[in-house]
Amino acid sequence: MKFSNGYWLAKDEYLINSPLEAFDASKVSGETENGTEALRVFAAYQSIDSRSQMLDVGMSTITVSTPAEDVIGVEIKHFDQDDHNPLFKLYPEKVQPTINVDDNTAMLKSGNLEFVASLHDRFHIDFNYNGSRITGSEYKAQASIADLSGQELGKVMHPNTVAGAQSLATPGSVKRADHFMREQLSLLPGTNVYGFGERFGNFVKNGQTINTVNMDGGTGSEQSYKSIPFYLAGKSGVAGKPGVYYGVFVNESQPTSFEVANEVVDRVSFSTRGESLEYYIIAGDSPKDVVGKYNKLTGGSVLPPEWTFGLWLSTSFTTDYSEETVMKFIDGMAERHIPLSVFHFDCFWMKGFEWCNFEWDKEQFPDPKGMLKRLHDKGLKVCVWINPYISQKSPLFKVGQEKGYFVKQGDGNVWQWDLWQPGLAYVDFTNPEAVDWYKGLLRNLVEMGVDCFKTDFGERIPMHDAVFANGNNAQGEHNYYTHRYNKAVFDLLKEMKGEDEAVVFARSATVGGQQFPIHWGGDNLSQFHSMADSLRGGLSFLSSGFTFWSHDIGGFEENASPAIYKRWTQFGLLSSHSRYHGNIQYRVPWLFDEEAVEVTRKFTQLKMDNMDYIYGQAREAVKQGIPLMRPMYMEFPEDANTATLDRQYMLGSDWLVAPVMTESGDVDYYLPEGKWEHILDGRVIEVPENGKWMAENYDFLSLPLWKRL
User: Fold this and answer.
1) Could you list the active site residues?
2) What residue stretches are annotated with the Glycoside hydrolase family 31 N-terminal domain (predicted)?
């Protein structure tokens, strides 16, 4: 949120108190999750020049710790209260920091990263890496903020209200104001900001306002299915000097607002509702180093089975389908020598209006167990669509209602609405019994022969008048819901299929979701600009600690033209994971034109022929905690020309892919310094030190696909 009126003033409705002087600091033991020592700093909201200034003043309690080498956590508290928000689960290491407090500073050091706070002076914080300042919190950047809008003086008590206002309040007339905590971290000149999950706007986030709240808004809006309160700040090196790279992870599950170099143009501001704010600075020598450390801190990535990297074919969404339709598509792919790995059944494998009842529609699929065996006999894996919402028409609704398995309203009734399914209810994954019930429903399908699940939705979770079984704040549970949902499904598959075979195909995600691969980009359009939107979203998501990502080949909405289908097929089969899926149109190539068949066959075979490279790179990416599909800046951080590139990427460390996003076949892209071989036409180019911009034209059987030699 924006609280300021220009650089110096606050907006009229906000009372902003900032730590002005840290008056005490000490080492504390036994309070951190990994059992190591921490530093605690007490900073008052006014300068302390005399004893009288120790009265009628608030303060922030700042606890500094380290969960891993080169990672420093900062927790800022105003009142020591439980906001009832789930913090994201972290996986700390046993790292003992160096802590020193003297007359002027309080310091904590982890590896080569150092936190330094001023004492008995204008309060500010510096974060130094390898001896140089990389960011910091300037004087008055931190803040404890009350929203006094609509309140009368004396009828509201904010913890930091000036003594005169407090004295006007009489017993019984006090009403607490909404409260926020804010931090602002400075940016060095020339620093680009990336990440925040799957964001479809400009790839470099400088100048944007970003709210980390999961929403079902498609791939062409400011909303996101996968909001991650993490950003990567990067500044390329010049004249042989190393660049500056660090990440900032805000450990708040409830919606958090980021003002990226806009409210204060040389800072990233972030704020959240409540009495506390927790964030981590993650430093490293390269973007990969930083992202890898963040990935490990939040649980690390999991390597999906090799079969998931092949081609997935879907029934599509609202199209008519039955076993006969499905087999016709599968046989059609085989007849045309197009390798197929997975067949996916979308929503209407169940009866309409009953999602989810987890029962096959017997009119269309009279012998589901036999059908699944017939698909397995053809060498295919089977995926089916699910979501975490239960329609009132589903036979399962009464069960969940009576046993208390759904999210409730404040009056004790089930929280319901008619969006998506009539009278739907939300499975409450904070209730262990509800989790077991939901997993049991899926267990029947796995026993029948289903190999994996597409875990759709998970974003439209109520944040108001909603009561969860664990008593948590509904705003805090909103983003965290997808983690509980995907974890329940993934855990069931691990239990039944084994750790090496478990996989979901998920749309929503939050921090730590890389433990439950794979994720795809959501509802895009069958248009060239939506290819670009999808890729920007994917590269932002992959800058945020995730390793694998996919998208609907051909676009989800609308009918795809033959040109869109063929160009997107190239892009899709040169992505981490590859799935044909649509809304109103089947996505089998022969329904477009004969060349589409040839394009699909060529690029599917190309991927299968190079599976040793792709799966080997996937294994290494999991090990390092970095993406398989990676932005150009991440692979070439020393080349400033790569900093803003968002229509090309590296697939692993050696393959450069520039999808063609025009019907004409015109494409412009950038080759960094080095020796490159075109994988499809055999050309070899020696690119000079400053890189080379390319402008070319490709037919539908080719695209810029280069291998670094």
Assistant:
1) 456, 459
2) 61-259
